[in-house]
Each structure stands twice: as structure tokens, then as C-alpha cells.
Amino acid sequence: MTGVAALLDGTRVCICGGSGGVGKTTTSAAIATGMAARGLKVCVVTIDPAQRLANALGLDALGNEPHRVEPAAFAAAGLPLDGELWALQLDAKRTFDDLIERLAPDDRTREEILANRIYRELSGAVAGSQEFTAIAKLHDLAASGEFDLLVLDTPPSRNALDFLDAPDRLTQFFEGRALQALLRPSGVGMKLLGRGTGVALSVLKRITGVDLLTDLSTFFRLLGGLLEGFRARAAQVDALLHDPATRFLLVTSPEREPIDEAIYFHRKLKSARMGFGGAIVNRVHDDHLGEQDGGDLAARLVAEAGISGALARRVADCFADEHALAVRDRENVAHLAERLGAGVPLLLVPHLDEDVHDAGGLVRIHRFLFDVDAGAGAGAGAAQEPRR
Fold first, then answer.
1. Residues 134-152: pLDDT tens digits?
2. Rounded to two decimals, what is the model's pTM?
3. CA dihedral sign, ordered 109, 111, 113, 115
4. Fold of 3-286+325-382
5. Signal sequence span per UniProt (predicted)?
6. Is 157 helix (H, G, I), strand (E, B) or coil?
7. pLDDT tens digits for 293-328?
8. Dihedral sign, CA of 161, 134, 269, 6?
9. In angstroms, rounded to a whole number, what is the distance separating the alpha carbons of residues 113 and 104?
10. In the chain, where are the structural domains located?
11. Closest of 336, 89, 325, 119 to residue 226, by C-alpha
12. Rounded alpha-carbon distances, angstroms, from residue 69 to 53, 78, 141
């Protein structure tokens, strides 16, 4: 096994983490495709609202439950799937509702919570709910035993660390003093709203017919009976993140800001003792000019290719721009390799001319992720230059 296949040996859950805009969705899909080509039954989970994953997999849309991807397009692109590839796009609200349905002690309580106006507003707004529901969905899929490997495309957040802290933040919300005061059966908590607030809500009820005070009281009463279940689920989710069969792959681009965030993310994973498989650097520029001088290249184009002087200079300038980007990328990748430490796997994916939007594009990315001679180094200190 080479490349990503070696990194994920013995892994049941692969979490692709990193800052937004570095190609996590494409990378997740390519990883899932490559592992399915190796005979595994794989499900890739995305939270990308643009549905680029669905488009790349040749699907009109994805839902909150796994959908089988037809293998014909991948076979036509030169990558037969010996296993099965499934995909879903997480609906955080639907997943949170499903959790309520499981935790509710009876049908009446479940229906009351789901219909409650306060719950409908808060279920999608609780801090960390999207990140928490992503791992909660992973937990359910892992517990089902239906798939050999689950690949998660983490939320498109500028701060990828929010994902790691989601279980703790949700637990802290439910155990916070303010919420606990509101949940006290004596009703004292509701008095914290204050007399003025109560008057205002009464006026609002007369004007709009909306009884927010009753909705709040009902919501907190119903929620009190579910807290233990939420705590237990948060603990299960946290256990999944720390499971030896769960492995994180850091995805970044060669710009300095996402590189620095990847380094910080790695430090966080290490301190939390979570499984780390390696790093993937997307969109690395090739150095076609190398040590040549741009002026010499222009002269050669005039002399050897018969190109006019003005056009030759423009072409040479383009090569010079690519050279500058390649030098920048090389320096930033070297910085990443140094900070991750010796022996940490580092895979490089080149900057492609076209955006990945179909099975053929995923197969192109797959070649660099899974073939060690297509840009994968044996370790951070031995990362090779990618090639097109």
C-alpha cells in the first residue's frame, strides 16, 4: 500500500480537517473513491452547502442518509470501484431532530419538543451544533457497522479547532449555571427573566398571539428530562474522536495562513492525544522555469520556436510568475514539514488547470493521493516535488 491507503490502514473513521477553502471536500471525495477502489465499502460525509461533492460524484443532490454512488463514471475514467462508494450531505437540523427523537422518553415528549417554537430556533443555533451533529452522525454510522470506512469532510469553518471542541462546548452549554437556573423545578429560574421582560412578553402575546413565555417554560421543562441523554451522547462522540480506529488527516493549501493553521491544528490533536495520520497539501505549483532566467527563456523562444519577441516575453513572464509561486510553495511546505516533525507523512497534490467537478477530476486527484511516485513523500522531511 502507498500514499493515503497506507495512512488509513486499520482506520474505520477518517476525518479531514483544516481551514476553509483548502479543498477538504474534494480531498475527502477522492480519498473515499480511492479506498472504494481498493474493495472497501466507504461512505463520505460532507457538510458543504454548495453540494460540490454531489456534483463531483455525478449526483443531482445528497440527503441526510447514505446514497449509493454509481461506479460507471469512475470505471470510464480508469478507476474501477471494486468496493462500494456511498455519500451523504449532513443536515444538521435533521440530525439534531433525530437525536431528540432517540432521547425523548415517549412519543408525546418528542412531539412537544419538535413542535416547540424555541426548540426550532435554538436547535440550529446552539454553539457547536453543526460540528457536534457531524460527529454524532458519524457515531451512528460507525455504530451501525454497515461501512468499512467513513470519511468526514469537516465543516467549512475558518477555525477548524471548533470541530474538536464541539462535544465539550455542547456539554458546557447544558451544564452552564444560567441554563441550570432556568431548569430548576421551583420555577425560580423563570423569574430571572425579570418582571419587565414578563410584561413585554405579555404585550407581545396580545399583539401577535405568540406566547413566548409559555414556549420558554415548556421548552426548559422538556429539556430538563433530556440532559442526561445529551451528556451521554457527548461522551460517546468524544470517545469516537479518541478511538484508535479514528484518524485525522490535515488538509491545507501552500499559502502561509492555512499552513500555520494546520500546524496549530496538529499541535491541538497531539495534545488531545487524537490519532493523526498525516498532512495533504493541495494546489502546489510546479516549477517549470527552475533555475533558468526569464530573459534567456524569451530569447530561446524567439530563436528556437520562431515566436515574436513581444509574445516570447509574455510567455517568459508567465513562467516567471509560476516560478515565484512555486518557490513560495516550496518554502511554505518546508516550513510545514519542519514543524510537523520528522517521520510525519506529507502528501502533495499539484495545482490543476481545472476545478474538480466530476469523476474524472476525482480520479486525477486520486493518482496523487494514492501513488507514492506521483507526489507522496515517505515522510515530512522527504516530501517530493509534485508533478502533473
1. 778 888 999 999 999 999 9
2. 0.80
3. negative
4. Rossmann fold (3.40.50)
5. none
6. coil
7. 555 777 777 777 778 888 888 888 888 888 889 999
8. negative
9. 9
10. 3-286+325-382, 294-324
11. 119
12. 11, 16, 17
